[in-house]
Amino acid sequence: MGGSSPAHPVNCDVDFDTSNCAGKTAIVAGGANGLGEAYVRALASAGSLVCIADVDAEMGEKLASELPNKIHFVVANAGIAPPDDVFSFDGKNAEPTEPNLKTIDVNLCGVLYMVKLSLYYFVKQNGTKLHPGQEDTCLVLIGSGAAYFDVPRSIQYPATKWGMLPYCGSRVNMIAPCDRSINRRCLFISARKWAPRGYMDLDLDDYPEKTLLDEIQTD
């Protein structure tokens, strides 16, 4: 299970093969609706057994009992984006109030827990040394275009999504939805006016001015 370091952008015009998802077990955090639901449906249609992680503990235990004893894919999708009160003004005659940091707890601390648990069970299942019986595993983090764009009057949500970037590596992937990075790539989900298939490889970790991202943000 060695790593990989692509030296060129991913060709997003090529169809990808989902056959290796068949018969594998996937856990999708926040998979009951929105983007998470779309991930669940895509994995299920590819033949994966999908566990939808939810705040409903009883249903979570029921689903877990129906799955095999191995985990192959984990999608850390759960996240929130409430109004950010870090910049709120409490009045010139009032003391500043403590900001609500639940966004940090859910979007960043929650992902840290998922990374810890995922990697623990990946290693527990496959061992620490290469052997023929090892099965491929994959951890997918859900970032956001907010990690790259300016987000007026919001600091917590962009900070949590930018915080996904250090986790990226050969076995940890990141998807950055926008308007709505894989194996160290930044696969950017965009409007189809920018990419016919709805996603592109930005080929960067950060971006300077007067680039494609700058043009997309201006648009």
TrEMBL record:
Report whether Thylakoid shows up as a keyword of the record: no
Q: Which InterPro entries match?
A: NAD(P)-bd_dom_sf, SDR_fam
Q: Would the keyword Calcium turn up in this protein's UniProt record?
A: no
User: Per the similarity annotation, which family is this?
Assistant: Belongs to the short-chain dehydrogenases/reductases (SDR) family.
Keyword annotations for this protein, in alphabetical order, are: Oxidoreductase
Report a single Gene Ontology molecular function: oxidoreductase activity
Q: What is this protein called?
A: NAD(P)-binding protein
Report the domain of life of the source organism. Answer: Eukaryota
